[in-house]
Structures
1.
Amino acid sequence: MASTTLRGAAPARAGLAPQNGVLRSSSKPCAGMMLKTVRKVGLPSLRVRASVASSPQKQTPIVKSGDEVRIAVLGASGYTGAEIVRLLANHPQFHIKVMTADRKAGEQFGSVFPHLITQDLPNLVAVKDADFSDVDAVFCCLPHGTTQEIIKGLPRQLKIVDLSADFRLRDINEYAEWYGHSHRAPELQEEAVYGLTEVLRDEIRNARLVANPGCYPTSIQLPLVPLIKAKLIKLNNIIIDAKSGVTGAGRGAKEANLYTEIAEGIHAYGVTSHRHVPEIEQGLSDAAESKVTISFTPNLICMKRGMQSTINVEMASGVTANDLYEHLKSTYEGEEFVKLLHGSNVPHTRHVVGSNYCFMNVFEDRIPGRAKIISVIDNLVKGASGQAVQNLNLMMGLPENMGLQYQPLFP
């Protein structure tokens, strides 16, 4: 089977002189880019799942089956960057050409993450030395607050999925309030699309820059947005208790994350002030078409990965917990990665480890008129890198589940 490689239309080295990559093959134009034919072995067949949460739209595919999409991973030495690499090892069309990690520049990726030593990858370079002339799309896995200026300097033809919080909040004044500094790329914020895939699929398809959601907001909005849109729950008195594995805090050395600080215990943090609060409220308010305020308490728990959100809601008059369940089941019936468990089965984080799934279930509370919704994800996959791959698949016109059909790892 012949495959093709996307060619960027403009030279692209961030802040440096452009350098053009070369492949020996014939070129042909496609959708404003140049495609170069290379040989690739047969690819697995994949099916596209239609969304029932966001209405489908016709789109001319940017990439055809067999086209190679050349990827840059910025911030590859962090947990989300490493998870991108792990997921792309199973992706038939996304291939990594550039990897950056300023503190690890010059090192082989396999020496930073030995579990991925089998992958044929470029050496790590500093962001300032990255050559984007041979790149079609970027996963930006850099720390919050560092991404805006870097993305502002990237070539305009690149498709970008940003895993930081830098473009999630539409209101740049609200961003400044919660993140402690003014927005450094307000013009880009205007074009950024929030990447909650199952809810905003149509907008993501046509986006150039996608702000990948946070882990807590993903686990919370997936169950709540459909219920709020259907007016099945009241908007006041939404109480959320959420728990995250330690990888949610990133790979940087922090005293609070030392083994002796977190072992054999659980502790709340960011009480009334967690930065995911405005992101969650933004999505819920959009669904309600009015301001929604939540009570949210995040907790750090002594495990490597995983996230559970327990959401307490007050139901609208005449609505039962079974009504909530049936509506969520109907909403996500055609979805690949969001599943309602059967009967009284309780979602556990161990059910989704290593996968792009979100499992949830609804339970009637002992307090009349109230219900509990439990939602679990792997914070590094559906809560970060997996959803990022899902979004870039959409942006490139590829099947949404491509490279993401990993089953959960259990036991």
Note: The mean pLDDT is 87.
2.
Amino acid sequence: MTASSKQQRNSRYYIGDVKHQLRDGFGLYVYPNSFFRYEGEWKAGEKHGHGKLLMKDGSYYEGEFSSGEIDGNGLRYWASSGNTYSGQFRCGELHGFGVMQYGDGSRYEGEFSYGLREGHGFLLDKEGHAYQGSFHNNKKHGEGQMTCRNGDQYEGGWILDQRQGHGVLRFIDGSIYEGQWRNSLFNGQGSMIHCSGVIYEGMWTNGQPAGGASKIVIEGGDVLEVFQDSPFTVEVQLQNNEGEMTAGENGRVLKLSAGVRYTELPPSCSSTTFLKLIEDMEEKPFPTSFGFECISYPLMEKMLERDHSRGSAPLAVTKSGFVLTDSPIPEGEVESGSGSDTMGGRGAPPSNLDGNLQFSGSEDDWQPPPANQRVEAGCAKFQNVMLAPPPTNYRAFLVMDELEKQKAAKKPAGRASSEKLTSSLDRSADSRSNIVSHVGGNSKSSLADSVNVRAGEYVIMVQDVTSPPFLNHPLPPAFVLLRVIPPKNGKNSKSVRKESK
């Protein structure tokens, strides 16, 4: 029988070599359903050896066949998804080592078991995340490492595509978390070293510190009192929602600032020049927790000369409820009305507080604003803080003075009222003259000889300025009223009462 006659046999479906009336050798076979077409090697009537199986939708397989089955190494293409696989097969399934290029841009290189990713492999997903590690049932499962598209790196346990168990996450910004995971979130015991310097160690729940700080608390109640032109200390705690100190948190950066209550100028003000001066000022009020707004007021840090032989300590607001000083100041009662929020009272600090706490008399001793403080074991302390002399043309005081003038002008004309108003205005002018001379002039006289700070109520604010914010959530600012009290008749008292509203 000639080769030509062999190829004509079963010509409706098959054209090729035949041996013992069976397809054997090379041939082309079109299946009766016309969807499949095979072209390649045959043996004893079965596909065997190298061949190509084409499908009507454009899909195909090309590679090794054994006893009629896709078996061995080959290339498979799926037209519907655009996936392409090159690797090992068994009984028509992806089995063994191979490379799958997915139509969505993902790529897997590793082990397969009957069509599923199983064992060790490398996966680059469509988002650009690269995973290398263990797989089970087509999912990341076991130990593995992932490098995210943004550069973050995770190494640890996985269960069903979720980070689970113990793992370490290194953020691209330098932050590091090490601890327990559940459902790809921090859950359980863990510690984080944040790129801002914040360190938290403790329990986590759904990605957030279970005992982490939720608020800033200024110790000492809602109102602190301090003598005029005296340094003081502000102690701060970070607390959680239960009001407990977060001793497991360190490193947040806190900023101390001050303000004076913002007062709107009434429409009755007729001074065009004054109104223009106020409008030109760029200072904008900021909100407080007391229901009113404030204008920022400068703070500074005082360098102190101490008499160590007397065991002195700087003036401070303490947990026991008193403002203490290292000098035996004031024994009399505090001047009545000193708590007024009009800030109208003025007084000059003594040039020498019994020799223990002294002003050096040099402008160089007055430092810039208090340095920001890092939290240690849930606490922070701002020491030797002072209210600075008010800036020239300080808006809040200008408005207060203008209101004072209007109030005085409404009183019935008389010698007493006139003298009182004149005396008040003279003191105001003299005070501003001394302050301007110190701040902008060349005077080197003792600061204690000038009037620096008005008596009355100020607002102290502590802000979380950690940068970048810890877990992208800065703590809300804390506020406290600071009542500045002038000594009565120049006498000092040993302590000043601290109030809580």
Note: Confidence is low (pLDDT under 50) at residues 1-5, 306-366, 415-450, 492-501.
3.
Amino acid sequence: MAAEGSGLQRELGPGPKPDALCPEHGQGLGWFCGSERRPVCAACVGPGGRCRGHRVRRAKEHAEELRSTASAAREVVIQRLSLVRSLCESEEQRLLEQVHGEEERTHQSILTQRAHWAEALQKLNTIRSSLVDMLTHLDDHQLIQKEQEIFERTEEAEGILDPQESEKLNFNEKCTWSPLLTQLWATAVLGSLSGTEDVRIDERTVSPFLQLSDDRRTLTFSAKKSKACADGPERFDHWPNALAAASFQTGLHAWMVNVQNSCAYKVGVASGQLPRKGSGSDCRLGHNTFSWVFSRYDQEFRFLHNGQHQPLGLLRSPAQLGVLLDLEARELLFYEPASGTVLYTYHTAFPTPLFPVFAVADQTISIIH
């Protein structure tokens, strides 16, 4: 039997002589067992070997296949990055051309307006001189006879002062809006948690209907009002809300929230002026001028602000929700990291300071860090 095994080993051959040896037979690992996904020796694949009957091949062939697979994968990466780079360059060119066109349009509008007002001033000076001349040189009887002319001159002067398409003098910032750029920007910021803030809940603000975890990142809803919470001016006493401990005045900020366990929550930002006491809309997130939130209730998703509800037709419930706040660009963005989908964007001149804000009325939500 041993002679037969030795003959088969000679037939198979030892293969290349790698540095590592088989711990069982002390031979070179010149073969690869596809069933066990590990390198083996000729004795392992021979009669009586543990890999007898398995899918085996020479290690060199397997290594060549791996190199070929890696090379193909590398080509795919290069091709896709090249396509993304080309797309970004085209979008950059398009946006810059739009900005330049809007800049030129605004500049021409300013020149047109300047010419208009120069002409208007000349007309006003002419009318003024005419009226001064009448008042200086005409007696009372003559002034009465000139009443209609004076009235017409005065009415003409008032018409000259009417605004002339002044809205065209404003730079239209919509020329810089790009769904592609927004999605790539959101993916770049939220694609890695290293770009997100270390947001934690301010325990002084937590509603008595919520429980806060020890690390101050998880909020759990409780239908029974807790009596352990000491009331204070910062605490929400009716709605299940909580504010983050840190606020933002300027710059770009991002954070992510795990919302997969809750069917009723709100996530967004709120002004420090948001009232805390009572059951009125002034304390309810999204129902006042102090808060801007993404809201889920059962299978309804909405953006809420100042009592205005913007329905969001989502095809599925996001497990995680990313929030980007760019105070310089005056933009608030909600994003689903798993699919790279921008769920909603809102533009306004936000008051500062702004706090991340949370509400939960079912199960738990957690800030990811």
Note: The first strand starts at residue 31 and ends at 33.
